[in-house]
Amino acid sequence: GAGVSQSPSNKVTEKGKDVELRCDPISGHTALYWYRQSLGQGLEFLIYFQGNSAPDKSGLPSDRFSAERTGGSVSTLTIQRTQQEDSAVYLCASSLAGRQGETQYFGPGTRLLVL
Amino acid sequence: EDQVTQSPEALRLQEGESSSLNCSYTVSGLRGLFWYRQDPGKGPEFLFTLYSAGEEKEKERLKATLTKKESFLHITAPKPEDSATYLCAVCSGNTPLVFGKGTRLSVIA
């Protein structure tokens, strides 16, 4: 079946502009996660959605970052007033039910470059 | 705080030269240890999940093992197509994963 999809694949923007990144999880998966992968760094957790529960936003680096998930499926990560340090690969993952130790399946990522 | 350390950072092997990658972890209560493979420009691809010390899993030329402090990814007779970055991650009760920085494996024909 179809895996996690993300769009756009690549995004180049100017410092100070807002960007929106989209994630479409695996059909039937109720848990959705956003991670960031910077050059030379490991994957860093950003935010987690599970069903209709309030999202876990503990990994968001600043209030310029926000995310929403509509209808329990598609999610959008928004970065306002982008900075050069926001340049990274943004990865989305989904899992079946969000249980502890459950396998997360990743999308191909969105490569963001802030000039 | 959960921590994951992978070694070596980079590994270069000749085709057929077996070796092992290490993932050392400190967690408050392990709920799962995950191995992923990541090719350049792509997202991580799931390989294995291990849940308890002593557990082993195999897939083709790869075998993952787990102790109470570390996991090994053994690569037997590697081929050039095994070249990738291998990522280790742990889950300790909070569902977001904590990742190591990965090991970049190059297999030379």
Explain what this protein looks like in three dimensions.
The complex is a heterodimer of chains A (115) and B (109). Chain A is mainly β and 115 residues long. In chain A, 0% of the residues lie in helices and 46% in strands. Chain A has strands at residues 5-7, 10-13, 19-24, 31-37, 43-50, 65-69, 75-79, 88-95, 105-106, 110-114. In chain A, strands 2, 4, 5, 8, 9 and 10 form a 6-stranded mixed β-sheet that branches. A 4-stranded antiparallel β-sheet of chain A has the order 1-3-7-6, with no helix packed on it. The radius of gyration of chain A is 13 Å and the shape is globular. The model of chain A has no long low-confidence stretch (mean pLDDT 94). The mean pLDDT of chain B is 95. Chain B has strands spanning 3-7, 10-14, 19-26, 32-38, 45-50, 56-59, 62-66, 70-75, 84-91, 98-99, 103-108. Chain B is globular and about 40 Å long. In chain B, strands 2, 4, 5, 9, 10 and 11 form a 6-stranded mixed β-sheet that branches. With 109 residues, chain B is mainly beta. Classes of the chains: A mainly beta (115), B mainly beta (109).
Features:
A: mainly beta; six-stranded mixed sheet; four-stranded antiparallel sheet; 10 strands; globular; B: 109 residues; mainly beta; five-stranded antiparallel sheet
